[in-house]
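PT: before anyone asks, these are the final sequences, not the draft ones from last week. 754 residues across everything. Please model them as a single complex and drop the result in this thread when it's through.
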Amino acid sequence: MPVKQPISPGRRRFRQPLWPYLFALPMVLWLLAVFGYPMVKVVQYSFQVVGGKTVRWVGLANYRFILRDPIFWKSLSNNAFLLLAVPILLALSLLFAILLFERIRGWRFYRAVVFLPYVLAPTAVGLAFGYMYQYNGVLNTLLRHLGVAGADWLGKASLVMPSVMSVIIWQQLGFGVVLFLARLMSVPAELYEAARIDGANWWQEHRHITIPQLRLAIEFFAVVEVITMLSWVFNYVYVMTAGGPGFASHVLEYYIYKNAFAFRAMGVASAVAVMLLAVTMVLVVFYFRLRNASQAAEE
Amino acid sequence: MFNRFWRIGTAALLSAALLLAGCTSSKPSGSNAQGGGEGAAKPAENVKLTLWYWAESDAPGANDWMKETIQKYQQAHPNVQVDLVIQSTDTLAATFQAAAAAKSGPDIAMQWATMPVLSQVWAGAVAPLSDYVPQDELKHWLNLNENEYQGKQWAGSLYLIGVPLVYNKDLFKKAGLDPEKPPQTWEDFEKALAALKAKGITPIGMGNKDGYTGAWMFSNLGIQELDSTDELKQAVLSGQDLGNPKFTGWYQRLNDLVKKGYFNNDVASLDLTQGWKLFPSGKVAMSWTTDGNLSQWIKDMGEDKIGIMKTPVFGKGKLSQVFNATQSISLFLTSWSPHKEEAAKFIQYLHDGERLQAWYNRTGVFPADDRFDPNNIKSPVLRRLWDLETHGSQVWLENYIPPDIDGNGDLAAGQVILSKNGGPADAVGIWKRAAEAWKLQHPDEVDNYKNWVTK
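LR: through. Structure below.
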């Protein structure tokens, strides 16, 4: 009977870590196929013009077209406008989370109510608010009963983006509240007791204890919402305004959609998608660096 | 050793399972109106046709008619199965774009007539219908000229849609207007609008959040200074000529109507179908609409309450006198279909005499076939509409501009005017920009468009 040679420690260390990777490999391959391949193709298309039966390499022509296109700049400025929703969401989420944290009567019910919009489909939310914001819709009817003149929330160029923003804030608020509340639950109660003993008032407690304790959660929420305002608002615009009136409520995703699927300008759409991806990646890297810096500072 | 064997085996099984899941093809979605007779003899080759279908928005009842048609066809042809996939208005063009890019999808598809069809013809996604349907059959189909290119008909018509201006006779009487003599000139039209407004009646009810009312105004008002559609095509190719009042001067008239408050005050926040609800509810005196809606409004309001007119005329061009009927949506064979002959036979079956009558009975919309007997039209209002749609020239101007310019130019410009967010100069700027963008992004299509103009 052959004698089995013992495995040297070096070989044993090399072989053992392979198993987790082998188990994960099929899914990694699948993710590369589903996400990686389309990303490569999008970058490729951004340098091409697909004209019927022919595909032409045009270099940076699509990027130059975008930079000269007033509709692109309008879309970008609308996304930039939506970034104003981030500090509003931060402030409102903090406020609601703090109120719920103070265990007011029925706080669990209020938490569920505040979170409920977040679980609704954005399309359904957009449809409902699309009806409510009509010139003779529910909102204006209520305002007129109160003696206030209604406005054309979706038909007036100056009001359409604030109207869309209000819906996004309404829906995203619940996520921030639940995130902050969950983090608050793990803050040691002794910190607040010690602060009260030292004579801190409500504002001082939350300014000097709550907000620093929530710093990581705030950073995370801020970055997620910035990414949302840049690249996750298509549903609202598509359903509520179709990018109108004119181009007043175009956002970058809607610009990509129209160029890719309505106008068959796949090259232009891909170029904008690449630019949006680059900005999003920068934000993600920025978030990780911020988090690492925060953790290093705490240590 | 046993543990190592177990781990290898588990990893191998997992990999195999995931690979199999990834490679499994999914069955296409959509309703399957099967109806073959039990025990019927089946010839050698079974054929499965996929039909991407849109018509319900134009003609309520169209979906049920098609399901019934498929059932009857399958009973008569047991070896043929037709899979019906209903399309939505918002994704009709985009979905077919994806199919055309992949050269995979339906055997029979539908796109709006003329440019939406021809742009797919030029992209190589369409097989010429006239190669598969005999001319002695095609000669009966109406408005086939809308999809004619290089001597071939590339798509077939199913029904005719006109866009009359419908008016409420009672509200006309209330405003002191003669309900049996609607305005024919633009001058008379403006007087009628003023009279209605003076009596507190909203003259026109439409919805333009989705941009379609603006597009309809282009087809009804923008046509009036033109002598031919080729003039428009030349202007589109040049881009700058679109600033000529011949092509965009009508925006001033539309702007005037808006500024004087002749449209409903929520026109910018309602979409087209929402805007249509205003007329049958008696809230507005007039509305542009389609045959299917008109049939329904006659049933809802009564024959004696409704009148129709052509869009009043201000223009001096030859096309100012045409009516605006179009086949609206066109059926065509896809170039990649392996069953073109069978698909063409199915399309022919849609023009079977019994099917034409059934179509009209269900939808109230006129079939696009001269074998349809107009004596079947009992309503005097609808009979007048039939005469408008089948006598004289018919042009729906929107059909003749590229889809990009339609979306980025036509619809957007109309929204700017109807929402009071800009004036005629802004509308012209939008058109020019759309034309330049189209030329930059679709050089192949521009070449084909030029050939189409000169042919």
